[in-house]
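Open question from group meeting: does this chain pack into something compact, or does most of it stay loose? Before anyone orders reagents, we agreed to write out a predicted structure and look at it together. Recording both the input and the output here so the notebook holds the full record.
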Amino acid sequence: MFGRLKRHDRLKPPPLPRELPPREAPLPFEGVLANLVQEPHPLGDAMEAARTDLPRVDNMGVTGDARDLFAVTDRLSAAIQQAFPESLCGAGCSACCQYPVGLFDIDRAEWEVIRRHIREAWTPRERSEFLERFERDFGPYRLKLRILDALMTFPLPVTSRPEGLPLACPFLKDDRCSVYAARPIVCRTFGLYSVLRSGRKESHLYACEKQAVTLNEALSKEGPRIMPPSVNPIRLALVRFLSFKARLIPLWVWQDFPRDRG
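Structure tokens returned:
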């Protein structure tokens, strides 16, 4: 019906078009990169903002803007928690408020921020109840705490755990920080950052054991991940505010807690 092809017709290749369509010239390497659409990483943006703001900070816990070391640190910390939703750090976890992590010294400058917060944000009743609880829990160990404070001023490793000491920050109440808005830099950064220790070549996670395991597992998953930023630049920014007179927090409470007259 349709006729039959001769053998030599079946072996013929199809005819070529008289004119070939012009080929597009390949893009240079820069052109290929320019055409790539890459979503910005929220943690990368936050790190860049902190890199810009940290050299300019001039207060702690006062202005709440890009001039405030606490505000700049908190914004970066929030971005880290967003990038690592697996993080265990959050309200109700007080692991880092316990000894040995939770018993540390702070400079007078950071204590003054806490003291101002207690004076302005706490009621007289809250201050009275705190002092009553503090004297009950910490009073019997005042001498031991003074000795420990003295040992921390010397470059000697304190490896033994003092027996019979209250093993929590005095401002921890019902597993919540009662001075959260005024907490020191060490409390704002522990558990979320990496740190480069003096004399070491590689950074490691600045966190308790459980949190470090969780973050390492998150970093090992498939997909792009940014290593938690280093806490070192924040510490360097903190140095400009320090008086270089540090004490254990319980000793600051005994020395300079804002008391009501009457």
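Observations to bring back to the group:
The chain has one domain: 60-86+94-256.
Residues 155-160 have pLDDT under 50 and may be disordered.
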